[in-house]
Design a protein that fits this description.
The chain is of the alpha+beta class and 403 residues long. The protein folds into three domains: 86 residues, no CATH class; 123 residues, Butyryl-CoA Dehydrogenase, subunit A, domain 2 (Beta Barrel), CATH 2.40.110.10; 144 residues, Butyryl-CoA Dehydrogenase, subunit A, domain 3 (Up-down Bundle). The chain contains 13 helices and seven strands. The protein is globular.
Length: 403
Amino acid sequence: MTVSFELSDDLVGYGREIRDWSVEAVRPYARYADVHHAAPDHWRQIVETCPVAIGTHDRRQVKRQPAFAEGKWVRDLVVTESLTYGDHWISNVIGAGIGHLVVKLMGTPEQIDKWYRPIVDNGGQTAFGLTEPQFGSDTSMVETTATRDGDTWVLNGTKMYCTYGGQADYVVVFASTDKAAGPAAIRAFVVPKGTSGFHVAKFNEDKLGIRSWTTSELLFEDCAIPVENQLGWTGGDGDGPGPAPRTRSGRSGALGALAQNKPNISATGIAMAQASLDIATDLLQEQRQSFAPHRWSLVESDLENMNAALGRARLVNFRAQWLQDLQRANKTEASVAKAYGPPTCERVIRRCMQLLGPDGASTDLLLEKWYRDVKILDIFEGSGQVQRIIVGRAVFGGADRVA
């Protein structure tokens, strides 16, 4: 079956309005966010100037986001790229996180009503606590422990680079209930903000790029939570999830939530790369007379090839989220999107900087900032190397052990 990913005029127009607004209202604060490692204090007032609803975690916008024939997940791809075309700091302050997506994937109906529904209906932020100091993508290396003590689970361990970890309403923490059992013993636990024994060691890590994007280091020291905070728990005395049909292992729940968001990560990179390419194209056009004809021909060829590469990245993103909207398996397609998009975007931005010469590395332009920002997109939520392993296993067979 042939599928066209040409967007409807309504969705294209919606995206264009967001993109134009982002350039005018968001981009002027890009350097501020980078230098101060935080969004401007008046970010809510900035968001309120947007002519269309874009969705915010605090639900302060009066209008609701419109629905489109393409579906929610495809719409969100358009929103992500259009918003971050101005600069990515805006996505961090309006986003809800992905912890609640794990609740939806793994939780019992009661847990979904308690922790998922309030976030999607009323707003809020959730965090995803998987990465630890000794590992990033290999989920089998979780060292954080969960020990059963009567009607509670007691968590001990450290999480880092946890988006929204220092401010979220709750963190979904992945911990092992039995180190000897390996990945099969990894479970997911909801830890609300303010729980005794839950400490924010560092609100925002110091990073090469995405400096305003809140990524926190979290400590769990004898952090006791009720047994019903274990996702999938349906009662009983065992230390594992009950037999409810929705139950999944903590590891599979982590992978499922990441798969849903991988195309959005790629779309963020595409926005940075397209913005860099557009700026470089305009500046090079102004300098065209200084190029010899044969050299200008090579420059034009570079620009065309980079636009084509970003177009391919969009197509694989759309395919992954189109499948998600159809409620069909998209794990492999999401990994293709994550494996291809971010490294391609990094190469595009680097080439734009090279074409511009000294101006490309100057802080007078934002290209050097976006080059620092884009690098992490190939690493977190499953590195590019890991995504290629997943795709290879889908093609040739084999079990997944990584995110």
